[in-house]
Design brief:
Number of strands of chain A: 9
Number of strands of chain B: 7
Strand content of chain B: 15-25%
Order of helices and strands of chain B: EHEHEHEEHHEHEH
Oligomer: heterodimer
CATH class of the largest domain in chain A: Alpha Beta
Strand order of the largest sheet of chain B: 3-2-4-1-5-6-7
Strand content of chain A: 15-25%
CATH topology of the largest domain in chain A: Rossmann fold
Structural class of chain B: alpha/beta
Order of helices and strands of chain A: EEEHEHEHHHEHEHEEH
Helix content of chain B: 25-40%
Distance between the termini of chain A: 54 Å
Bound molecules: guanosine-5'-triphosphate, magnesium ion, zinc ion
Distance between the termini of chain B: 42 Å
Number of helices of chain A: 8
Number of domains of chain A: 2
Helix content of chain A: 25-40%
Largest sheet of chain B: 7 strands, parallel
Chain lengths: 249, 223
């Protein structure tokens, strides 16, 4: 077994130049980390530091480093993948052609890369189905986000994934978290959604630009998360019934 | 004085790159900017609003890279007269055959990630001879397209420092500023050991064809 990828964050400063209250933080591949905090608390800045494996010259002065990752992956800027709300597809391709393009650009083995599985995963997340020949340009927002997640999980080799506000992506949040929490991947989720935050292994609480708290999800919180998920599914069923025109009670 | 030549296709984000680098403290003050353009430019307003000495050169029908070579000594004289420590030249580099880079200046190419994953393969010496390649609008394209863009970029220039910069928010500006300063030191060292002449890094195409000189009838054999 190769050594797992480990990402280290050394403290920087908050908006007022005060040092962050930790010695160093280590995150191992396989974990899911939620990033929470009010708007303007520094979630986006933290994602930017992580995305660039910041050497300490960003406004926060945090130092982010990664070990246990092939140097070629880091040198090719492929160690960190991002999936955000502002991203779109610019290529004029069908879905399958797009996946083939990505596979071939990264020189992935054609036999080992199961594009049908990627398509299947994307459809599972999206809810509204789309086919291999659907043009990228005609995907709905949710379908596009679902394809981006499935593509990164199936084809990219990035050990670190950064995902913004998956609750607003128009996809099945639970299915997305199931797909994202894969062995060998370290996932950071910036979120306002308690359900997502509690499904993570640990959460970083941001305040005034700094990582103020690091909370491991407790067993009681995990039980709460399971209960919320059940409620959420019930709400989902009600939503479907509403759409069908049924009586709800 | 340190000179940076920033080239790239129209609207690639060149002005934003320079502004972000400036705000991140990449350049020793006082800084001046010279802009080369084919026809019209609104960039001068950006610099005037920041009280930064700025000059514009219009290339008109000529290749802007040729015009830069021709006028470079004049720009240096202007910069010296203004007492500048840093001169940033924003130009085009779009003819595909030439590059606007000078031997004693840091060469920066600005590319737009939304131009398509094949865009790096379509650029000639503008990309191949750059010290630093800044990629803008990476915030807008999918991870797969970023990765494929990066692969194509490295196939054309593996030596340059690559900096992904969000021109809108400035994310990546600090890393870019560090890269600019590092490149300036190494260009400075090379200039010190070289002949010290002011010359183009990539020899410009020497020939003017009949069409360049104004013929318009199709089908003339050029060579
Ligand atoms: N979303 C996004 N927009 C960007 C980015 N970089 C630049 N822009 C926008 O793109 C537009 C053009 O940027 P400029 O810096 O003026 O481009 P330019 O290359 O100097 O253009 P010319 O000098 O006219 O050739 C501006 O409205 C910028 O706000 C980026 O990384 N992301
Ligand atoms: Mg400009
Ligand atoms: Zn030319």
């Amino acid at each position: 077994m190769p050594e797992p990828a480990i990402l280290t964050v050394l403290p920087g400063t908050d908006k007022f130049g005060r040092s962050e209250p930790f010695g160093s933080l280590e995150f191992e591949a396989g974990r899911t980390v939620a990033i929470v905090g009010p708007t303007g608390s520094g979630k986006t800045r933290l994602l930017a530091d992580l995305e660039r494996l910041s050497p300490g010259d960003s406004p926060t002065r945090r130092r982010v480093s990664l070990r246990g990752v092939p140097p070629a992956v880091v040198a090719a800027d492929r160690a960190v993948a991002r999936i955000s709300q502002s991203m779109q597809f610019f290529l004029d391709l069908g879905v399958r052609e797009f996946l083939e393009m990505h596979r071939d650009a990264l020189q992935r083995d054609r036999e080992d890369t199961d594009l049908d599985a990627v398509l299947g995963a994307a459809n599972h997340l999206a809810g509204e189905p789309f086919g291999p020949d659907t043009p990228l340009a005609s995907l709905s927002g949710g379908q596009a986000r679902a394809l981006m997640i499935a593509d990164v999980m199936g084809i990219s080799d990035a050990p670190v994934l950064l995902v913004d506000e998956i609750e607003n992506a128009g996809i099945d949040r639970h299915a997305a978290l199931d797909v994202l929490s894969a062995p060998g991947r370290l996932v950071f989720l910036a979120t306002h959604d308690p359900l997502i935050a509690l499904r993570a292994d640990v959460r970083l609480v941001l305040c005034e630009g700094a990582i103020r708290e690091v909370r491991e999800t407790t067993p009681a919180e995990r039980r709460l998360a399971a209960r919320l998920a059940r409620e959420d599914r019930k709400t989902g069923l009600l939503r479907d019934a509403l759409r069908r025109g049924d009586w709800l009670a | 004085m340190t000179v940076y030549v920033v080239g790239g296709p129209p609207s690639a984000g060149k002005t934003k790159v320079i502004e972000r680098a400036l705000d991140a403290g990449a350049f020793d003050p006082p800084v001046g900017v010279a802009k080369l353009d084919c026809s019209e430019s609104t960039d001068l307003g950006t610099w005037r609003a920041r009280s930064i000495p700025a000059r514009q050169l219009l290339a008109g029908a000529l290749c802007p890279d040729h015009v830069l070579m021709e006028k470079y000594p004049e720009l240096l004289a202007w910069a010296a007269e203004k007492g500048l420590q840093t001169l940033v030249v924003e130009t085009a580099g779009l003819c595909g055959r030439c590059a606007p880079y000078l031997r004693d200046a840091v060469a920066v190419a600005v590319l737009d990630a939304t131009a398509g994953i094949a865009a790096p393969r379509k650029l000639g010496p503008l990309l191949a001879d750059a010290d630093i390649v800044v990629i803008t609008r990476g915030d807008l394209v999918s991870q797969a397209e970023r990765e494929a863009f990066g692969v194509n970029l490295r196939s054309r220039n593996d030596r340059a420092h690559r900096a992904w910069l969000d021109g809108r928010t400035g994310e990546g500006a600090m890393v870019l500023a560090t890269a600019l300063r590092t490149a300036a030191r190494s260009v400075c060292r090379q200039a010190a050991t070289g002949a010290g002449e002011v010359a183009a890094r990539t020899p410009l195409p020497q020939l003017y064809c009949s069409y360049c000189l104004g013929r318009d009838q199709a089908g003339i054999e050029i060579l």
